[in-house]
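Collaborator request, handled under Task 6.
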Amino acid sequence: MIDFSFTEEQELFRESIREWLAKNLPLEKVRENDEKHKLPKSLIKGLADLGLLCMTMPEEHGGAGADWVTAAIAAEEMGYADISIASPVFFLVQASWGFVVDRYCTDAVRDAVMRKAAQGEAFIGIGVTEPGGGSDVAAYQTTLKRGDGCWIVNGEKSYISGTAECKEMGGGYFVSGYHDRSKGYRGMTAFYLPIDAPGVEVAKRFDDMGRMAISTGGFRMTDVVIPDEYQIGGVGRGFYLTMEGFDDARLLVSASCLGAAERALEIGMDYIKERRAFNRPLAKYQGIQFDLAEMVARLEATRALIYKTAWMLNEKYKGNFSALELSKWISMCKLTAPFMALDTFRRTMLWMGAYGYTKECPLEMGLRGVMSYHIGAEGSANIQKIVIARETLGREWTKTR
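Structure tokens returned to the collaborator:
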């Protein structure tokens, strides 16, 4: 018999997070953060005190040692509270990519950034996307050349989350590039890039349409010297570690979209129970009820997919699933959850008529926020379809050459 229940500890964990977020991050505060384009330091400190920052890292490294089901619960609750998706991004980037960095880095990197990030005193992010593309990791142009006990890095990264926060707080990024292009993707190596390293130039902030409280920017690397001790995971492992980070992050992205969609439905239901048309509450109309029924069914199906995948991710790290076996399930989550959330916000806003089109309605923040995940953050929808088809049909049927 399959057991879909959460442990008592996980239920208490969910309850405590929701209670804290309801008090410290109500919708009015989410709106304020969105308009000010900034996450307050008190919120970051609070998340650290709760043990949510870098929570998947082992306790001996400064994390909470959380498993992936528990991390998904946290991501869901973050999305439920902050439907703009800004603080969920701050959380999940560090819970996923921070986990990968910590898993494969040296103690020098842990001491330089990881322990501080878990305390909310630094930011550890992912510097993957380049001006020429994002999902095609093997096409990256960033290069590494061997120096004396170091690597010399040149390249540019763009559309990177948290650049302003990283610059202000201190910290850096997981970055990968080619040390030997003749070997294809096996010629890629990963490293930790301090944001304040000489030769790193942080670009201006992009004016995104959503998740306004966390920055999106980029940085250029010109002859940046990275010591050997900042190399991550072994020479030639950069591509594989990037794929691992994508999988971990996509799960938490999906869970945060789940929480945001749940909150949108609650806001929408409150509205249709109060709003009247032709002397009846909107909730009395079967057309509204059928619309609601479709959204609830899709949300619950997505929830089951996400938490099964979170369990599988736990099992993968125990050696019971391969990365390739898991990638199909991760991609199914990332394909379905952002679209489900976006559609939920769109349809509940339609219930509200003209009010739904105003900034007095909180749902427009969610529509703008989850759109970033639907477009391509952590991998576009079409990339997920390629992965799902490849792992279903077999690789020989999806090769392009």
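The cover message to the collaborator said: "The longest strand covers residues 150-161. Residues 238-274 form the longest helix (37 residues). Please let us know whether this matches your experimental observations."
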